Known about the structure:
heterodimer; A: Alpha-Beta Plaits; B: mainly alpha
Amino acid sequence: MSLVRAHRPLLLIADDEPVNLQLLVDGLRDDFRIRIATDGEQVLALAANDEPPDLILLDVVMPGFDGYETCRRLKQQEPTREIPVIFVTSLGHEDGEMRGLELGAVDYITKPVNLRIMRARIHTHLKLKQIQDHLAALSNVDGLTGIANRRRFDEVLALEWRRNLRAETPLALVIADIDFFKQFNDSHGHLAGDDCLRRVAAAIDRSMRRPTDLAARYGGEEFVALLADTDTEGACLVAEAMRANVAALEITNGDATPLRVTVSCGVASAIPTSEDAAVDLVTQADTRLYAAKSSGRNRIAC
Amino acid sequence: MAAAQDRLGGNRRLHAELLLRFVAEHADGTTAVCASLRALRPAEAVAALHRLKGAARIVGAHAVAEAAARAEDDVSHGGTQSLDALHDALCDAIASISVHVAVAPAQQDAPAVLDVDRALADVAAALRTHDASAMDAIRQLRHASRHELPPEQLVTLEQHLSRFDFERAREALDEIVVARRHAGVR
């Protein structure tokens, strides 16, 4: 993946002094797209926008709540937490700099700024952020199949369990297991087995209908689909789509029976309560998966 | 002021614009501070002095920056003696800036476009997201509109945006759009 973005990075500049703003806007506009806030509330609103900024230049002394408080609030909120913040201030004392860095800012620049140095620092922090994002993305992806990994699934399951608990809405889980996969590996070798896993993973991923649906590799030849705000009926439709899409791949399963690679699926859905745990949903889906297996495979059990 | 230009990468045009902006924003700086103090709003006075100090440092008005720093400290401790010195430093700086800016190169105008409605839409979109490209969009609008839009309303719009007040700029733009509709132009 290229670390160079196709478009110019978006900066949010927060300052209440027009001379400072004009300096930064004029001096940085060739390298960056720029949005402007003149107080802390505007910073929070613009940072949580549909297109969040890639980096925020934040003055300390502003009307309403100051830059420190603005930074603290940015770092508290999930959508804005990871946006790098650079303080740009005429408060030159070390205590202020320490406070800014402790609040999560990546840098602290004192005015008057040198435009060339500031530009270079911004580029450095943007590169670091892109590398950090890239590593974070890699840590959530299964290396073989390219879909979400077990770590990511566990993380999203915990998040969605809490969210659906608060919203009192159902959370559904489908566990899919490739039928006779051991025989497939024995007949065709592990390289063909890896290719089979990749194609099945892609078919399962294609079966997700909403942006919030998550398909992940659970381990070995097992896959999961996590479906927020979904009851049993809706989850069965997704499970059936997963089963049908894998069967439609028509991957030949050597001498084993049946002739095509298929999956069996177990489905569970529940409205989370404080008495239950997310792992109970996994256990339920797992139990139904075994029911699907024992009743003939290439089927779903709800 | 040479050091200030160096910090701007030698950009004389930008330095000249910042000097003009400094005069526009802060020529009455001490008057505003005194008004805040008379209204028993010392925090507002300290904030204004802090802004003046920062702006003076940027444009290279060091005497003003130092006087503003002393006044910021003074006023935050209940004093006002240093305000006279600040006033004098500010007057000297403004006189010096007038000479300096007179020889600075003029800014080039944006190329003209023909579609006023398109230019209005561009300005509206940029204002909604507080995007700095609104300044360019307004320059385009001014050229596009020629005599089609009321010049006094355009001036109001530009004034709000020059102070980076996007909300009031949006209100001014809305008024322009409404006036245009009433005039029967779409």
